[in-house]
Amino acid sequence: MAIVEAVQNAMPTYVNVYIAVFRYVAPLLAALILFRALFPLLRFRREPEIWAWLCLSDGKKIPITHWENIIGRDKRSDVVIDLATISRTHAVLTRYDDGSWSISDVETAGDVLVNGKAVTVRALKKNDVITMGGLEMTLQPISAKQEKRLAQIRTKASSFGTGVTNVILLSLFQILTCIGFLMTGKAEHGTSYLMGFGGLMLSQWLLFLFYTVIRRPAFEVESVAFFLCTMGMAVICTVAPGEAVKQLISAMLGIGLFLAVLWALRDLERAKVIRYFAVVAGIAMLVATLVFGTSINGAKNWIFIRGISLQPSELSKLCFVFVGASTMDRIMTKRNIYLFIAYSVAICGCLALMSDFGAALIFFCAFLIIAYMRSGSVGTVALAVTSLVFAGVLVLKIAPHALDRFANWRHIWDDPWGAGYQQTQALMCMASGGLAGLGINQGWMRNLFAADSDVVIATVSEEWGILMAVLLILSVIALALFSVRCASMGRSSFYTIGSCTAAAILLVQVILNALGTVDVVPLTGVTFPFLSNGGSSMICAWGLLGFIKAADTRQNASFAVRLLKTRGGEADE
Amino acid sequence: MNRIAKRSFTVTLLALLLLGGFAFFLVEYAMNAPQWAVADSSPHVYDDDRFQSGTVYDRDGNILLQMQDRWTYSSDPQIRKATLHWIGDREGNIQVPAVPNYYDQVLGFDYLNGIYTYGGIGSGEGSVQLTVSAQLQSLALEQMNGRKGTIAVYNYKTGQILCAVTTPTFDPDDLPDIAADPVTYEGAYMNRFVQSAYTPGSIFKVVTLAAALEELPNAAELTFTCTGSWGGGEYPVTCESVHGTQSLKQAFCNSCNCAFAELSGILGSDVLHTYVEKFGITDPVSFDGITTAKGNFEKTENPVSLAWSSIGQYTDLVNPCAYVLFMGAIAGDGSGAMPYVVAKADDGQEGYMAQTAFSSPVISSQTAQTVQEYMRYNVTAKYGADHFPGLTVCAKTGTAEKDDGVAPTAMFTGFVMDAQYPLAFIVCVEEGGYGASTCIPIASRVLTACKQYMDS
C-alpha cells in the first residue's frame, strides 16, 4: 500500500523516536481511559429506589426498595417484620415491568391471606389487605409522579460530555496504535491494520451515537470493553495480522449480541421466556459439538461450518448465565435449584466428554456462584454433594489431561526446552519488556504457540509493558466489583445473579489465562475476554458484558432499564 | 434481594483471588525479572545458545570474548584455554561461568525499560571485566603441564582472583572430541577451583593446628613423640620416618602424622568439628553467581578415624576456593576478603562494580599470627625460602592419599605476608604425587610471575 510505503520511507529515525515515545505515552493514555471509565463505576453513590410502601395496621410504613422482596422475621429479609407469628422467610413481594405487584407464599412458611383468603400467588389490586401471621397490611405503590420524581433525583450515569470524551480518547489511542503498526509493520498488512483499528473505532462511534439517540449516554463498561478489544487487535496485528478483519467482525457480532442481551433483559417477562430457549440452546450446542465437533489440541470443542470455526462451549456460557439467573419467587421454591443442579451436571458431562478442561472449570465456578447466590441455606447440602460429583467427574474423565498440566505447574523452569518452553519463553519476553515494553510490534512472542490466545498477556507485556498488563487485569477486576456494587440496588435477582455470574465468568477466565501464563495457576488454555484472538470467545465476552450492563440502575445508564413514561393503569387512578 | 446482594461477595472473593494471584506474580517478577530477561535461551538475547551482546575483558583490558554471532574468543589459543571456564563455551556445556551472571548488566536491564534501548535491544557496548589476568592464566595453565587440577591466586586484601586455572581444559576454537576421550577430558566442563572437592591431605593440618591453638591455652608448649606409627590396628597412622620428640611447631613443619593423630585425641571429634565449622572450611562460598562445592568433615567416635580425619584423610573433602579463602583469613589476621572474579559489568554507561567485602572473623588474630609464624617456619626450615625470591611465603604441603591405587593428589597452599603482595594461593595436582616436589616449583613460578605482574 502506498500509504505504508510513504510512512516507511520516512527516515528510520522517526520510527525509532515514535516507538521510544509511544512506549511511555501508551500506558499513560490507557490509564487515563480506564480511570475515566472505571472511577465512576466504583465511586457512584448507591441509593435505593423506593417502589412502594407496605402499610401495617399499626400505622408503620415500610419502604419497598426492590422489585423482588422477601418478607420475613429474618434480619436479612428485605422487609423485616419482627413478630413471632411471622416465619423467618414468609412471602415474596414482586413488582412487574408494568408496575403491577404480586405476592407469593413461600411454601414451607406460614400462610399468606389476601382479603382473608389463603393464596400461593396472587396479583395485588389496590387496597387488597394482606394478612400474614395475624398482621394486616396494605401495599401502596408509589404514584407515577413520585416515580418520575424519584428517577429525576437519582444519581446520573456519566453525561454525554464524559461519554464523548471517552470515545475520543479511545479513538486517539487507536489512531496512535495504528500509526505505530503502519510504521513498523509490513506493507502488505497495511489494510489489516487500517481495517482492524478503523473498524473498532467506527463501531464504538456508532454504538455511542446509538446510545445518544436513545438517551443512554453512559459509555463506561463499553469503554473498558473497547479498550480491551483494541489491545486484542494490537496483539493480532503483531501475531497474525491476517486475522484482524475476522476479529473485527467477531467484535461487531459481539456488540450485536450485547445489545440483544440488553434488549432481552429490558423486559423480565421476555427474559424469562428466553431463558427456556437458553436451556435448550446451552445443552444443544454442547451435544452438537460432541457429535459434529473436531478435536484441536486435545479438546474436542470446535465445529467447522463451511470454513467458519466455532467454539459452541463459549456461547453455552451465555446460555448458562440465562439459565442460572432467576427471579426471587422462583428461587424461593426449592424445586428449581434441583433442576438447575441436574442441568449443570448434564453440561459438565458434555464438557467431560469433550475433554475441555478450561471450559469445565469456568462452568464449575459459574455453577458455584449461581448455586450459592440462589440457594442460601436450603440448597447448601445439595450444593456440596453436586460439587463433589462435579469434581469427581472432572478428575475421573479429564485426569490424564489435567495431571500433565499439574505436573508442570510451578516447575516450568525444570524443563525450559520441553514442557516448560511456552511459559518460560513467555516470562523471558515479559521480563525483556520491563514496565514500558519493547515497543509496538517489536516483540518476539509472535513466534510462540498461542501467543494471541492462551499466553496473550505475555504478548501484551512484552510489547506494551507489564504496566499495560496490570491495567488490563485491574479493569476486569473493576468491572466485577461494579457488578457487586450494583447488587445492593438490584431490582430483580434475575439481574443481580446474571450480572454477578457474568462477572465471575470473566474473572475466572482472566485468572486461568493470565495467572496460568505466568505459572501462578496451571495453564489451561482459556481465553482472556475481549483480548484473546478468537471469534466465539469475543462474542461471548460481549454477551456477558450485557448482563453486567443490565444491572446498572443509575439514571440513563442502560437501555435494559426503561426510561420513565407515563403509564396508564392503577398508579394514576 | 438483600440476601442475594450479600451473597455477591463471592464475586469479590474471585476478584481478590485474581488480584492476589497477580500480585504474587509481580513479586516473583520483581525478584527474578533481570534473570528471566537474560535466561539461557531468552529469545531476544540468545542465538542458538549464545548470548548476543557485549565483550569480556581481562583485568588489563585484553579481549577474551566478543559476544556477537558465533562468539569470537581471544586470538591466543593458550588464553582461550586458560580463561574458558570463567567465560563459558559456545555450546553451553560449562555450567557455572561467572560472566552470565552479569548479562543483565551488559544489556543494561532496568525495571522500567527491560532490555529496551533506543532503536533496539541492548546498546551493544556492554562489557564485563574479569579480575584475572590473561597473561597469568596462560602461565599457570602452562605449569599444569597436561595434569589435572587447579591453581589459584587471590588477593586477600581486595578479594580479586588474580589467576585461577582449571584443567583439563580445551580450545573452543579447536574443539576436541571430548566424548571420545573420557580419560584425558575427565571433568573438562568443570571448573575445579569452584566445583570440585578434594581430599586435602596434610594441608588440612593447618585446620587442626589452628583448632588446637584456639582450644588449648598451652598448645605451643605441647610435645609429641613420633615412633613412626600411631594407633595400631588395621589402619594405623604412620609417618615416612620417625620424627622423635617434637614441639607442635616442629611437628607441623615435619607434617608429622603421628603427632597430629595424638593431638586429635586431645581435641576430640566434637571440638575439631566445631572449629571446622567455625573456620568455614566445608561451607560453600558464593560469589558472582557461583556457589562452590561443599566440603566434608565427619564426626566420628573412632579415634583412628578421627586421627585420619585430622590429617586430611578419612572422608575429608575441601573445595580449593573455600580453602584458599581460609588461607586469606589466616593471612588477614582472622578475616580475608571475599573472593570475586568479575570486576565490573555495564552496558557502556553504568552498571555493576565489584566491591571488597570481608568475611566475619573466623579465627582470633592471635591464633592467626601464630599459624602465620608456623607456616612461615615451614618455608624457611623445610621447603626453602629461595623458591620464592622477594616474597615472604607461608605455606603447607599436602599429599592426599587416594584409594584404589590412584597416585596421591599433590597439594600446596599458603599466602604471602608482604604488604605489597597480599596473595593467598592453592595448587592442586591430581595424581601429582608428593605435594612438596610437584607443587612447590609450580607455586614458585606462578607466585614469582604474580610478583612481577604486580610490580609492573
Please characterize this protein's 3D structure:
The complex is a heterodimer of chains A (573) and B (456). Chain A is α+β, with helices and mostly antiparallel strands. Chain A is built from 18 helices and 14 strands. The termini of chain A are far apart. Chain B has a domain at 201-339 and 359-455: Beta-lactamase. The N and C termini of chain B lie far apart (89 Å). Classes of the chains: A alpha+beta (573), B alpha+beta (456). Chains A and B meet through helix 2, strand 3, helix 12, helix 14 and helix 16 of A and helix 1 and helix 2 of B.
SSE blueprint and pairings:
The complex is a heterodimer of chains A (573) and B (456).
Chain A: H1 2-9, H2 12-43, E1 52-56, E2 61-64, E3 68-72, E4 79-80, E5 91-95, E6 101-105, E7 112-114, E8 117-118, E9 121-124, E10 129-132, E11 135-141, H3 144-153, H4 160-184, H5 190-213, H6 220-239, H7 244-266, H8 268-292, E12 294-296, E13 299-305, E14 308-310, H9 312-324, H10 328-331, H11 335-354, H12 357-375, H13 380-408, H14 421-433, H15 456-464, H16 466-487, H17 493-517, H18 535-550
Parallel strand pairs in A: 3-4
Antiparallel strand pairs in A: 1-2, 1-11, 3-5, 5-6, 6-9, 7-8, 7-10, 10-11, 12-13, 13-14
Helix pairs in contact in A: 2-4, 2-6, 2-16, 4-5, 4-6, 5-6, 5-7, 6-7, 7-18, 8-9, 8-11, 9-12, 9-17, 9-18, 11-12, 11-13, 12-13, 12-17, 14-15, 15-16, 16-17, 17-18
Chain B: H1 2-7, H2 9-37, E1 46-47, E2 50-51, E3 55-57, E4 63-66, E5 72-73, H3 77-87, H4 103-107, E6 116-117, E7 120-121, E8 127-130, H5 134-144, E9 149-155, E10 161-167, H6 192-195, H7 205-215, E11 223-226, E12 229-230, E13 237-238, E14 244-247, H8 248-254, H9 257-267, H10 269-279, E15 286-287, E16 290-291, H11 303-310, H12 320-331, E17 342-346, E18 351-353, H13 365-383, E19 393-400, E20 409-416, E21 423-429, H14 435-455
Parallel strand pairs in B: 3-8
Antiparallel strand pairs in B: 1-2, 3-4, 4-5, 6-7, 8-17, 9-10, 9-21, 11-14, 12-13, 15-16, 17-18, 19-20, 20-21
Helix pairs in contact in B: 3-5, 5-14, 7-9, 7-10, 7-13, 8-13, 9-11
